[in-house]
Prior knowledge:
The chain has about 450 residues and is α+β, with helices and mostly antiparallel strands. The protein has helices at about 95-100, 120-140, 160-170, 190-200, 210-215, 220-230, 245-255, 285-290, 335-345, 385-395, 405, 415-425, 445-455, and strands spanning about 1-5, 10-15, 25, 25-30, 30-40, 45-50, 55, 65, 70-80, 155, 175-180, 185-190, 260-265, 275-280, 315, 325, 330, 350, 360-365, 410, 430-435, 440-445. InterPro entries: AMPK1_CBM, AMPK_gamma/SDS23_families, CBS_dom, CBS_dom_sf, Ig-like_fold, Ig_E-set. This is CBS domain-containing protein.
Amino acid sequence: MLLSLVEAPRRSYDSDLRWQDPLVMEPVDGHEGVFSIVIDVPPGYVQYKFIVDDEWRHDDDQQLMPDPLGHLNNWKFVKEDLSEEVLLPLPVPPASHQQLMEIDSRNNSPAMPGMGHIPAHQPDLKSSRMQIADFLAKHTAYELLPESSKVVALDVTLPVKQAFHALHDQGIPAAPLWDSARQQFVGMLSASDFITILRQLGSNGASLSEEELETHTIAAWKEEKALQSSEIGARRPLIYAGPDDSLRTVADKLLQHGVATLPVLSISAEDGNIPRLLHLASLSGVLKCLTRNFYNFNIPIFTWQIGALPIGTWAGPGKGGRRPLSVLKANASLSSALTLLLEAGVSSLPVVDDNGALVDVYARSDITALAKDRAYTRLQLDDITVSQALMYRQDASGVAGTAGVRCHYCLCVDTLRQVMERLAQPGVRRLICIEAGSKRVEGIISLRDIFSFLLS
Length: 456
């Protein structure tokens, strides 16, 4: 790497040397007042700074980035093939949850949310996607199985009410359905089903009364749901994966069928072809497997800023192929919130104040909190507000329903790698992109958004 400066120092510091020993810069022959130095550094981002008259300084004419303390450093991106000129988006140091909450309105990055364009160097994009696809193709669903865990399945003869109580008590958003008569897994029961039932209970044409929830079985309700939607005779088979299926196959099935989880089933002649439930696979598990192996990758797009990529749902008119963002006000009715969740086809919506600042998040899975003490039998969805529904969630979980517990954040200047690492953390299904300082919601990035981009 070549560093040069005009009318400058005789010393410079390099981040690869951990800012310890200064490197002496030499005059360039034939160029008065110009100093330079050649440094041998590994490929990747390198930060550096100069010392002028015993003071730390950066060069305003070269590329700049802030460090975690707010100081500006110069930076370069070094590639193995030095013949290829490269200019990638500015890297941003990782920010903790607390740092994100305390960040001020200082933001010197050129990336803006909603730009939705892919940076230059399409070969980097293509090679990055090929590396990821190759990794997913070489690893199997068996690697998603934890060393020790429990998997919950529900029998189709279980009353609907007990089924949703079970989802709430186990703290899970969905469960596979087991048909004992057929000795097969026949579907999934999810929070979306509970939303549908509650909306029906509040309408004149409800197919189930509150009393019927006590005795009506899952199988009977699924049958009625199929009849209402003209699915009978063309019912979708259970979407599942085998332990030997590749992670690419798992990810593709989750994306193509629009499901959040799918069962991993082992079916063998030794077991009489009776499926054994091993795990519930999700994009979160696939991403966790991917991030565990980041150190094996040299993937350029991981350093690109999330705000400059066509990933996620963003406030304002959709740009660059992105979807516009829907948000909720805390005083909106729960009925309107559930309708918006279903119509928008999303798993959650940010809850904002009058200034558009993030207050909380309401997700489809939160609806199961109303199963506690049969709260749904005493409430009208049009009368209860989102804020009140969030309090039911707090009472049900025993955890304060604050943004500090529930919400996970990012900034539009965070790199793709930083976003992926946060999404791979347990319990994180989405990141809310906020504006530094005001906490105004700018967008939301889900696991599905990440994989749709990586595998497109």
